[in-house]
Each structure stands twice: as C-alpha cells, then as structure tokens.
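Quick one: structure for this chain?
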Amino acid sequence: MSVKDSMTMAALLLLAEQVGHSQTEIVVRFRDFLNELSKSGVTECDLNQPMNVTYRMPSGFAKKAMVGGETFLIVFAYLGKRDGVIIQARRCDDLTSIYEFPASVAENALEGYQDIVDQFVQTYGLTGDTDSTVIEARKEAQRIEDEAHQAALLESRMQDRRFGSW
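Got it. Here's what it folds into:
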C-alpha cells in the first residue's frame, strides 16, 4: 500500500463495519497494536506544524502551544465521544505527560502516523483484494465529513442575525 493509497482512520472504521466488525473492536485492536509497537519505540512521530495540543493534567485537560518539530511516541488509542478515534502520545523528552490528538488531526500533523496506520492495515489484512471496498469506504467517509461540514455551516448561518431562520 503506497502513501497515496493510505487509509484514514475514518475510512478504516467504515471498512471494518462493512466486513462485519464493530468500531470499538477495531479501535481496541489498534490500541493493542500501538501498545506492542510502542514497547519497541517504533511509534515515534514528529509534529510537523505549530499547533495547540490537548494534554492531560491531574485535574482535567488543557491546551499547550507547540512550535513543531517535537517528537512524540504514540502509545494508545480510544474511541472518543465527539472526535472519533483519539490518539494518545507522550513527548519523547518528557514521558510523563500524555498528549491527545483526534485521529483526523494526527493524520496531517504527525509525520509518520500514517505509516503506523498503514502498517496496522497490512497487519490486520485489509490489503490486496479489498481495494474497491477501501475506495468505497474512503468515499463514504468523505461524504460524511462533507455533510457534517455543511450542517455546521448551515447552523452558523441560522445563528447569524443577517440571515435568520425564515
């Protein structure tokens, strides 16, 4: 599977449902896969852009500004309530703090994350003759994202006093 043919986590979850697996089951398998890889330190990814990153504190969550170039070790994944799959990572120079990225953000912001997803897809056996299913899953994932974007845009317009809800 080439980088051009990389599968997003959203497409992977849709594909899993099409072949009869639950999203939770796939995320648990991905979590276990990350756990095994992180023991050998091969889940290192570099933040390729400045951004505010969510990190866990004893009292909850906070945002921390990153300049880019920081190296993270991806250690865990879970299915969040709002953002779908959440990737947890530790900074390689500070292994005590846990940072969280929605998978859709990690795909663009963490250099090397997509290679880990591709490796998971190959290990899980979703390559080869499933190309048409992968393409359909990608299209469906894109359609869902587009619908969510349009719904959010409509909602913001409805709240705008210049447009109103006439």
